[in-house]
Each structure stands twice: as structure tokens, then as C-alpha cells.
TrEMBL record:
Gene3D superfamilies: Hypothetical protein af1432. It comes from the Bacteria. GO terms for biological process: dGTP catabolic process. GO terms for molecular function: dGTPase activity. This is HD domain-containing protein. PANTHER family: DEOXYNUCLEOSIDE TRIPHOSPHATE TRIPHOSPHOHYDROLASE (PTHR11373), DEOXYNUCLEOSIDE TRIPHOSPHATE TRIPHOSPHOHYDROLASE SAMHD1 (PTHR11373:SF4). Coiled coil: none annotated. Signal peptide: none annotated. Residues 60-181 form the HD domain. InterPro entries: dGTPase-like, HD/PDEase_dom, HD_domain.
Length: 469
């Protein structure tokens, strides 16, 4: 057997596993060969983003290996400050590789279906924990020690006291984010969201950050901090994440596809549970049918991936259920609903400044809720017909100040000052301090449904008319 195994990665180039001299890397290489990990080849990292960016077809498997590689880079930083060998190094590296193990088909969109039906096995964190603690993977991990698998699972789930090692797995500056920001930008071809990765790594330090909760000073937390020369790179890092959300992760077409997919699978699961498998177009032994009937079985969850859903679409398109057949065709052929951006319409009708006040003014939130309620009431008048209106409301903060976040310093970026103090980035950077939460409120309708389009406009206009003067 060769001394090293290599994976060629478009982002990191060669990712090597020294299976002769490193027991951990030998174990993790064998973990990569397991069925559960290989399943990640068939789950795209960005779900439906290739509907917008055709190059964005990279897999969760490649991202997971890239996170492991990035975690090794972060460990070299830790070694400069904490040279003593710590068992948590190996735990964090294994956790970095396995953090996405439990994702279902189309990842986060599948979790929305799980929330609707209370399906534990649609939650990627729950599935990951089971696979790490009790599966073929856990058996391999036990070569590192009897309690190693459980320690890794705890680190993936975020259990226990935060440490510099858990910061590698989950923090504002963790290996996951450092990989997916760069990888997703590369694979989509977007020119937004570029970060100065090497400069950030060159200026990365380990520091003890003090903080308080409810005016009670707590024990300092050891985490990653950035040297004084990295403030502009840190700003670009935060801005890069902020830019990825509207341009990639929350793109209107991507979100529109996710909405149709969610309604398609929800309808399918509901019919299967009601004993109407024949209406779905799927055979009795199809993996999706088996999952809907016995959703708590880990084996049924592992049988699902993106390819299973893609393969089911031609069958579902021939369903005698109008809802399933129409939505299956829409996903298969990328015939998405048209999008009306409610926030943009308010800004257009009231003036550009209205978009800002829409975020800050409580009265605007009432109007938004009223519009959403009216749209939902109209759309469910025919419960057995395919939904004519799909509503998408989402928000994301690019950076939470320490006072806004309960996770403590691990979820902050601290910069060392010329006076050798550690200060939260939002207090050193006017750019970061002024960033607002990204919010989207959109309504989707079929392009040939003039009645729905007219009704949506009427409801939105009625809501806007109540805008405070």
C-alpha cells in the first residue's frame, strides 16, 4: 500500500493523507472509504445553486475533505502557541472531516421538510451524531481509543466547554467557513466575496479573550485572534460572507427551486403516509417511500441522496396527482415560479430610503406580517391543488456583535491593537459596525397564473398603502 494517499482538489490542489506515519490520517482515510462518507459524493454542496451557476456542482464529500485540510492549517497555528500535544487535536481534525456527514438530499432544503413533519433523520446534525457514535465509522474511530468516537461526536455537536480546538470546528473563523467561502466562490465563478486567505493565516494568533455575561466577568476563553496588520483582511472576510448570501445562497432562483422542491416532497410524503403511494408515481420499494413510512430508521435516511431524487422525478412527473406531476416537471425542467421581491417593490414605491426603514421601523414589520398573512390565506383556498403562491422570507447577519450573541468570543473576530489589547472587530472597523442584517421577503407564482399575479399585487399594494407617513 502506498505511504500516502492523495486527493486532487480544485481549491487546495493536493490534499495528502500520510497513512504510514499518522495513525489518525490512516483511520480517517479508511473512514472516507465507508458507505456513509461516500454517500456525500451524491449530495451537492450548494443544492440547487447550479440552476443559477452551472459550475456549482461540487459535492459535500469534497468540501468535507477540504475542511479537514483547512483544519490542519489551523492546527499549525495552534502549535505555535500551544506546543504540548493535546488529544483534542485529533478529535477536532476528525470532527472537521465528519461535520457534514448527515446531510440529506439537497441539504438544507431537505431539513425544511424534516421540520414540517418532525423527521429526526432529516436533521443533518442528528444523523451525523448517530453515524459517528454508532456505525461502521464509529468502529473505525475506536482505533484511536475507546472513547474517541464519542469525543468527536461531542465536538461536532458543540457539546462541552468551548476551547481553541472546538474553535477549529465551529467559530466565526472555523475551517468549515474558510473552506466553503473560497470553494463556493470558485465553483460558482462569482467574482464577489474574495478573501485574502494566506494573509489571514499568516496573521492568525491564539489569544485569551475576556468577556462578560449580564455584567458578570467570566473566565477568559482561548480562541483565534488576528494580528494588528490583518484588519483590512478581516473586513474583507466579513464582507465576503455578506456578499455570498444575496448573490449565491439566497439567490431568488435558487430559493425558488428550493420552495418547489419542498412542496413536492412534502406532498409526496403526505400521500405515502395516507396510504396513497400509487398516486405519487413511485414504486412501493422506492427509497423515498421507505423513508416516508419509517423515517426514524437510519438505514432509510442513508438511502437518500440527490441522485435518488433526480431519478424519481420522471416517475413523479407521470403521477396522477396534479400537485406532484406539475412540481416534478418544474424541478426536472427548471421551470421555476416567477419572483416578486416585496422589499424591492416597497423601496420602489416609497423611495429608496424606504428599504432601510423597512428593516428598522417596527411599523414596517407589521405591514410585512399582514402581507404575508393575506397571501397565505389566499393561497390555501384549494388545499388539494398545487400551491399557486410560494412565500420566501429569510434573514442573515454577516457578523454578530458580542452583546448580540450568546456563543461568546468563539463567534467573534478579535483584532490585536497597537497597545496589545484584543478588541472586537466591530469596534475597530466602521465598515463592519455599520453592516445591517440581510433580509429578503419574496413571493413566487407561476408565470402563466395571471390571477395569482394580480392578487399578489393587490395584497402588496394594500399593505404598502398602510405605510406610516
Amino acid at each position: 500500500m502506498p505511504r500516502q494517499q492523495r486527493i486532487r482538489d480544485p481549491l487546495h490542489d493536493l490534499i495528502e493523507f500520510d497513512i504510514e506515519r499518522s495513525q489518525l490520517e490512516d483511520v480517517l482515510w479508511r473512514v472516507i472509504q465507508t458507505r456513509a462518507f461516500q454517500r456525500l459524493r451524491r449530495i451537492k454542496q450548494l443544492g440547487f445553486s447550479d440552476f443559477v451557476y452551472p459550475g456549482a456542482t461540487h459535492s459535500r464529500l469534497l468540501h468535507s475533505v477540504g475542511v479537514f485540510h483547512t483544519a490542519r492549517r489551523l492546527m499549525k497555528v495552534i502549535e505555535k502557541y500551544l506546543p504540548a500535544k493535546d488529544a483534542r487535536v485529533d478529535q477536532a481534525l476528525a470532527a472537521a472531516l465528519l461535520h457534514d456527514l448527515g446531510h440529506g438530499p439537497f441539504s438544507h432544503a431537505f431539513e425544511k421538510i424534516g421540520e414540517r413533519f418532525d423527521l429526526k433523520m432529516a436533521n443533518h446534525e442528528a444523523v451525523s451524531e448517530i453515524l459517528i457514535r454508532d456505525s461502521e465509522i464509529s468502529e473505525l474511530l475506536r482505533d484511536m481509543g475507546s472513547g474517541f468516537a464519542n469525543d468527536v461526536a461531542d465536538m461536532v455537536s458543540g457539546s462541552g466547554t468551548p476551547t481553541i480546538y472546538s474553535a477549529v470546528v465551529s467559530s466565526q473563523f472555523d475551517a468549515d467557513r474558510l473552506d466553503y467561502m473560497r470553494r463556493d466562490r470558485l465553483m460558482t465563478g462569482s467574482q464577489h466575496a474574495g478573501i485574502d486567505f494566506e494573509w489571514l493565516m499568516a496573521n492568525l494568533e491564539v489569544g485569551d479573550v475576556e468577556y462578560s455575561v449580564d455584567e458578570t466577568r467570566l473566565k477568559p476563553v482561548q480562541t483565534f485572534v488576528l494580528g494588528r496588520k490583518a484588519i483590512f483582511a478581516a473586513e474583507a472576510y466579513v464582507l465576503g460572507l455578506f456578499q455570498l448570501y444575496p448573490t449565491v445562497y439566497f439567490h431568488k432562483a435558487t430559493r425558488g427551486a428550493e420552495k418547489i422542491y419542498t412542496e413536492l416532497l412534502s406532498r409526496t410524503i403526505m400521500l405515502i403516509r395516507d396510504g396513497s403511494v400509487g398516486k405519487t408515481g413511485l414504486p412501493e420499494m422506492h427509497p423515498l417511500v421507505k423513508f416516508a413510512r419509517t423515517p426514524d430508521a437510519i438505514e432509510n435516511a442513508l438511502a437518500l441522496d440527490d441522485t435518488v431524487i433526480w431519478g424519481a422525478l420522471p416517475l413523479m412527473a407521470n403521477s396522477n396527482d396534479e400537485w406532484i406531476s406539475k412540481f416534478a416537471e418544474r424541478v426536472r425542467d427548471r421551470k421555476l415560479y416567477k419572483c416578486i421581491d416585496v422589499r424591492a417593490k416597497i423601496a420602489h414605491d416609497k423611495d429608496d430610503g424606504a428599504a432601510l426603514s423597512f428593516e428598522a421601523d417596527a411599523a414596517c414589520a407589521v405591514i410585512r406580517d399582514e402581507i404575508g398573512k393575506c397571501l397565505e390565506e389566499w393561497s390555501i383556498k384549494c388545499p388539494d391543488a398545487p400551491p399557486r403562491i410560494l412565500i420566501d422570507e429569510v434573514e442573515r447577519s454577516p457578523y454578530n456583535k458580542l452583546t448580540e450573541d450568546t456563543k461568546g468570543p468563539l463567534n467573534q473576530i478579535n483584532i490585536r491593537t497597537d497597545g496589545d489589547h484584543l478588541v472586537d472587530l466591530s469596534k475597530r472597523s466602521n465598515v463592519v459596525a455599520e453592516l445591517k442584517r440581510y433580509k429578503a421577503f419574496r413571493v413566487y407564482h407561476a408565470d402563466d397564473d395571471d390571477e395569482a399575479k394580480t392578487k399578489i399585487s393587490e395584497i402588496i399594494d394594500a399593505g404598502i398603502s398602510k405605510w406610516p407617513t
